[in-house]
Amino acid sequence: MNQTINNLLIEQLASWETARNNYAALSDVQVKELDVNGIPYKVQFNPARIVSSGAKVDAQSIKERKCFLCPANLPPVQKGIPFEGHYNILVNPFPIFPRHLTIPEVAHVNQRIAVRFKDMLALAQTLTDYTIFYNGPKCGASAPDHAHFQAGNKGFMPIEKDWRGQVAGKVADYGEATLWYLNDAPRATLVIEAANKKHAAALFDIIYHSLDIKPGDDEPMMNVLAWYEDEKWIVCVFPREKHRPACYTAEGDANLLSSPASVDLGGVFITPVEKDFLKITAEDIAQILSEVSLSAEDFHRVRQRIKEKI
Q1: In whole angstroms, what separates CA 310 from the centre of its chain?
Q2: Is the pLDDT at 53 greater than 60, yes or no?
Q3: Residue 102 is assigned to a structural domain of this protein
Q4: Are 164 and 183 in contact (CB under 8 A)?
Q5: What is the DSSP string of 116-136?
Q6: CA–CA separation, 45 vs 248, rounded Å?
Q7: Per-residue pLDDT for 54 more than 50?
Q8: pTM for this structure?
């Protein structure tokens, strides 16, 4: 499957000007590295991502636009690879990664993780060159009305190689799966390490039901990363408190267009505006993470609930 996807990427870059130009622009993307409370983060200046970071995701705006993930609305030049009969693997034309995929459900159904977490594990096991990610409907998804995953080539996000060194302790064992939590405040991170798909899914279900659902929402706020290595799944779950930090709508110098999603929480902050890239500091990232992530007290409470359910 990895080779089939590489072939798709080559074909799409040859035939699709928008994608070709945006992937070519990645070679000029500026990156800087920051240390946030001892945790390495990268900041990427990526103007093409304004489409996602600046997306209007209120109910009215969504109602008034055509869904860009529905098969009928894809550009004629965009081709896909079917996955398990009801997903379509597409090249993302606004990339963060050198190889960036969008994997929408064929049907127009809301962005929800509970019913499709096993699909995420299946994708991770099949697309072994990629990390799969899920952005909740109020956690960075620019299409909260259409179920989809994304995928980016492995090794891009610092957390992929650094998480083991950040383990604070074990929350619980569940069969052939272990749940760890990291010492990476102000981010709040749970990591499932599992050799068994059923046990990984059961453990995720327990996490899901240990998180609060905010009034008016249909699922707990979260971002999820998943990849498969050494015959095991690694799944990072980032429970969320808030969609966007105060700086997103602030006026004047305080404004910083940051709408954190899975990739930001994985350690690569995306700034689509150059002034933000130039001025953002480790303190800014710590502040943004402290606003959108669970507090230390809430995170502790969630871990206690998980222990009680196992």
Answers
A1: 27
A2: no
A3: no
A4: no
A5: GHHHHHHHHHH-TTEEEEEE-
A6: 16
A7: no
A8: 0.93
Using alpha carbons only, give the angle 59, 96, 77 rounded to the nearest 5 degrees.
Answer: 75
8 Å CB contact between 272 and 49:
yes
Q: In the chain, which ranges are E strands?
A: 30-36, 39-45, 80-83, 87-91, 100-104, 130-135, 148-153, 167-174, 177-182, 190-194, 222-229, 232-239, 268-271
The backbone torsions φ and ψ at residue 4, rounded to the nearest 5 degrees and listed phi first, read -60, -40
> The tokens of 8 are what?
């798709």
**Peptide linkage before 158 cis (omega within 30 of 0):** no
Q: How many domains does the chain have?
A: 1
**Structure-block tokens of residue 271:** 């700034």
Over the stretch 97-153, which tens digit does the pLDDT of each residue have? Answer: 999 999 999 999 999 999 999 999 999 999 999 999 999 998 987 788 999 999 999
Domain that holds residue 243: 31-66+110-165+188-309
In a domain, 271, yes or no: yes
**DSSP 8-state secondary structure symbol assigned to residue 190:** E
In a domain, 140, yes or no: yes
Domain membership of residue 77 (yes or no) is: no
Residue-wise pLDDT tens digits, 2-52: 899 999 999 999 999 999 999 998 888 899 999 999 999 999 998 877 655
Exposed, middle or buried, 47 (CB in 10 Å: 0-12/13-18/19+)?
Answer: middle
Residues 6+ apart with CB under 8 A from 141: 57, 111, 135, 148, 261
What number of residues does the chain have?
310
Question: Which of 235, 53, 245 has its CA nearest to residue 134?
Answer: 235
Residue type, position 177, single letter? A
Nearest-Å Rg of the Cα atoms of the chain is: 18
Strand stretches in 100-189, DSSP E: 100-104, 130-135, 148-153, 167-174, 177-182
